[in-house]
Amino acid sequence: MALVGCGRALPAASISNDQLSERVETNDDWIRSRTGIAARRVAGPGETVTTLAAEAGRAALDHAGWAPGEVDLILLATSSPDDLFGTAPRVQAALGASRAVAFDLTAACSGFLFALITAAQYIRGGAMQRVLVIGADQLSRWLDWDDRRTCVLFGDGAGAVAVQACRPDDDGLLGFRMHSDGSRNACLTLAQVDVRRPLLGGLSHQSGGFAPIHMNGQEVYKFAVREVPAVLAELLEASGTDPAAVDWLLLHQANQRILDAVAERFAMPASKVLSNLAAYGNTSAATIPLMLDEAVRDGRVGAGDLIASSGFGAGLSWGAALFRWSGPGTPPADA
Ligand code: UT7
Question: Which positions ≥6 away from 16 have C-beta within 8 Å?
Answer without folding.
Answer: 28, 38, 39
